């Protein structure tokens, strides 16, 4: 067997031929400096619909990206056929650094997190006041995911003609979350869309909510030229609606600069990935009080420094209660 020393000639080096062609193998990846910039609008079975210079382009992920996946809202670089014509396909070769992420897990014991939306500025949590009944624990979980991922929450309450919003407003009043209350009539005549639109200008807003709350109906009203399938009826027995949105979809906002991102209806929202130290940053009046907390404090322990911080008058006790309620929801099921 021949061994190579320190001083070998190039002719002495064995090279394995490339069976698929004459070009030698290399680990150097192309830079694709001429790649076009685009935004992912939706993902369906490995095919990504992107917006590139005003054209809708179908693309797939390049092999060199490995397991890194692009999601709705991602800013990407593409090469290949970007004419947008039928049966053409481009390649996504880069995914830009994300400014925010909305993530969830299947449940609280699932270690695998899933990024639902990237680069959204705002999370609109849509809940019905009746038919189906509100699920505060699910709302809490959505709020925790928003705070954790760097999104500003917006609470949208529908069907106020069936029940008043007072209880929910009292529950979330101390969180200082902006909100909009709508009725079924307002959804039909466009008044609800107009009032929600006031909160969406210049932002990318992801809409989330469990089935039957009117989320997709509201999205349809906001983007009438991109009508999605109408919502299914709410099952009178279970109180759950049919899933009418099967994948996240980014839509340009009608009449205002901004984006609306419709997401599938959720029945659960796992928070296994959430770190309490990130959620506290959504409470600027409480965050300074954590300097005296023990290492890895969950902020609901006997020696948590936030109790003394509140007792000294630096923050409202109701704010600390709200923080702990949100953090505690990670360990509860949504039906609690």
Instruction: Output the number of helix runs.
Output: 8
Low-confidence stretches: 227-245
Mean pLDDT, as a whole number?
Answer: 82
Radius of gyration, taken over Cα atoms and rounded to an integer in Å = 25 Å
Distance between the termini: 70 Å
Helical amount: 10-25%
Order of SSEs, N→C? EEEEEEEEHEHEHHEHEEHHH
List how many beta strands DSSP finds.
13
Strand order of the largest sheet: 10-9-8-11-13-12
**Shape estimate:** globular
Query: What percent of residues are in strands?
Result: 15-25%
- Structural class category: alpha/beta
Keywords:
336 residues; 5-stranded mixed β-barrel; 19% helix; 22% strand
What order do the helices and strands come in, and which of them pair?
Layout: E1 36-44, E2 47-52, E3 55-61, E4 75-80, E5 90-95, E6 101-105, E7 113-118, E8 122-128, H1 136-149, E9 152-158, H2 166-172, E10 179-181, H3 184-189, H4 191-197, E11 204-208, H5 215-222, E12 249-252, E13 259-262, H6 276-279, H7 306-311, H8 317-328
Parallel strand pairs: 3-5, 8-9, 8-11, 9-10, 11-13
Antiparallel strand pairs: 1-2, 1-4, 2-3, 4-5, 6-7, 12-13
Helix pairs in contact: 4-5
Notes on the structure:
The structure is a single chain. The protein is α/β, with parallel strands linked by helices. Strand 9, helix 2 and strand 10 (179-181) form a beta-alpha-beta unit. The longest helix has 14 residues, at 136-149. The chain has helices spanning 136-149, 166-172, 184-189, 191-197, 215-222, 276-279, 306-311, 317-328, and strands at 36-44, 47-52, 55-61, 75-80, 90-95, 101-105, 113-118, 122-128, 152-158, 179-181, 204-208, 249-252, 259-262. Helix 4 packs across helix 5 (215-222). The termini are far apart. The radius of gyration is 25 Å and the shape is globular.
């Amino acid at each position: 067997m021949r061994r190579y020393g320190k001083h070998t000639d190039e002719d002495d080096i064995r090279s394995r031929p490339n069976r698929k062609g004459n070009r030698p193998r290399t680990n150097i990846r192309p830079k694709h400096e001429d790649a076009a910039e685009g935004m992912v609008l939706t993902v369906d079975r490995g095919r990504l619909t992107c917006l590139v210079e005003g054209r809708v382009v179908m693309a797939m992920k390049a092999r060199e990206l490995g397991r890194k996946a692009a999601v709705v809202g991602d800013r990407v670089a593409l090469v290949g056929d970007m004419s947008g014509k039928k049966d053409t396909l481009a390649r996504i070769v880069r995914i830009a650094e994300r400014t925010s992420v909305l993530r969830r897990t299947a449940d609280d014991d699932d270690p695998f997190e899933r990024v639902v939306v990237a680069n959204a500025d705002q999370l609109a949590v849509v809940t019905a006041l009746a038919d189906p009944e509100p699920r505060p624990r699910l709302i809490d979980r959505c709020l925790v995911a928003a705070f954790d991922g760097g999104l500003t929450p917006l609470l949208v309450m529908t069907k106020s003609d069936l029940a008043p919003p007072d209880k929910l407003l009292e529950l979330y009043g101390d969180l200082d979350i902006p909100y909009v209350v709508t009725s079924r009539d307002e959804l039909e005549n466009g008044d609800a869309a107009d009032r929600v639109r006031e909160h969406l200008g210049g932002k990318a807003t992801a809409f989330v909510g469990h089935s039957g709350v009117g989320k997709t109906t509201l999205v349809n009203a906001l983007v009438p030229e991109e009508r999605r399938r109408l919502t299914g009826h709410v099952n009178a027995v279970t109180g759950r609606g049919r899933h009418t949105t099967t994948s996240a979809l980014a839509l340009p906002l009608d009449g205002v600069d901004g984006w609306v991102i419709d997401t599938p209806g959720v029945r659960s929202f796992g928070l296994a990935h959430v770190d309490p130290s990130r959620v506290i940053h959504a409470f600027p009046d409480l965050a300074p009080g954590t300097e005296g907390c023990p290492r890895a404090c969950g902020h609901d322990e006997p020696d948590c420094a936030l109790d003394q911080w509140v007792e000294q008058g630096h923050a409202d006790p109701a704010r600390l209660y709200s923080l702990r309620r949100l953090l505690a929801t990670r360990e509860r099921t949504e039906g609690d």
